[in-house]
Write the structure tokens for this entry.
Amino acid sequence: MQPAPISINIFKNSVWNLILFVIQGVTGLVMSILVARYLGPELMGEYSYVIWLIGVISLVICLGLPNAITKFLSELIGSEDKAHANIIYATLLQLQFIISLLVSIILILLFYFNLLPDHKDYYLIAFISLIPVCMSAFLTAVFQGLQNFRLISIVGSSISLLQTALVVLCIKLDAGIMGLIAISLIGGLLQTLILVKSTGLALDFTGWLKIPKKLRDTIARYSLHVYWTVLLSLIVWQKSEIFFLKMYSTSEAIAFYSIAFNTVMILTTLASLFAAVIFPVLSNFHGAGYTTGVQNIYAKSVKVMMIFYLPLCMCFIAVAKPLIVLMYSPAYTTVSPLLIILLVSALFSAMGIIFANVILAVNRSDIQAKYVTLQAAVNIALDLLLIPQFGATGAAVANSAIRIASFFVWLWIVQKKLGFSFPWREVGRCILPNVPLAFILWAVGSYYPGSMGIVVVFLAALLFYPVLIFVFKTITGDDIRIAKEVATILPEPYERRISALIDKLPLRRDTTSVNHEAHEEKQE
């Protein structure tokens, strides 16, 4: 049985995730600017390294459990098997807590007995924060599986605003790196307490063995594959370049690269938030045996990413230099070329996230694990080749190159091994309006090179891009049909006006649909 129509749910969840993205993006940028100005390049490099270390260790000890709980909760809830869903939730929650606690205790003991290479006091706070950071990540994944993005958005946004206020307080109190790292501990702890009380799932600890053996084996195998993928993806997606910069370069180089990388990660987070909405839907369709639905959601997701993400990346490339100077001061001018190098690969990275979600949704995590191993080896080779000689620039080139190469690997896997067609024609129509837009943004950015150019470039994109996508007929009649379907959530007067406006637009007609024509075909 096919799940209910999903256009409206996807839209609502995407809006909630967009709200979260905007608030976390703005607060993250504000915190980054405040901390960079407060600490200066050298201490900023030390702080960036500790934050990176927390992120790496937390991903390592998560064991792929957050991804597993999202996928299998979505499948089990969709099949109305809430009893097994409760058992899996309780078992994995307990496992995640025990692992996080043990690793945190081991690291604290190593710190206490001076067995670590660095013995600065703020590392103790960092190791304590691992428990709430891991648990909040797991519980967020639970709500993604339940497709309750509203609560994720509200809680995540509130925590981000609170952390921003705490950063301001730390700076006023001159609490240094110790106080700044303690903010991660406070935020993770609050988020964990709020989410664990809000799941609505029963904590059934009565036994993992109550789950059918086939399902147990599937979950265990999936988690191991995802865990291996996560470990190796640390090399590609989680800034292994910082590790090599620490070995072969300076703290300033770490600071410059971290700022560029974190700025691009704001855009990557936007893609990840959209993909987080799509992943449980893909898993739900796969669990229902609805392959056509998986293909349609995949194709539409690629098109949405191209329409919105490509022009956004071009805007940031056009304003990279004045943006960095405005936000961080002229002392950080070196960041702008690093930012441009990383932005070139941002779209490929975003598309790779969609490919990965399709691979995981259809339970082919084994394929992903195999090819991530190869990508990790290539990334290390590039780091060793480029970073000792070129420093932060070499790090940016290495990271960007492997992201672009990974795009073609995942595309080949999804199309040739899994049998899902890539929407080449639609992608081509999405690229066409961006060609003249690129020349427009370059001209505007060149004519207004200062801070004013930032505003003018984004205004030019908002003015010309909607016209160009209709001139090149990027938006089809089916896209508008979905938009009109989504508009039904608005009050009736607004719905009528929007529908009337949409009907007047010049559109290219096609027969592709996410959940209308395909739904009718399935019903027949």
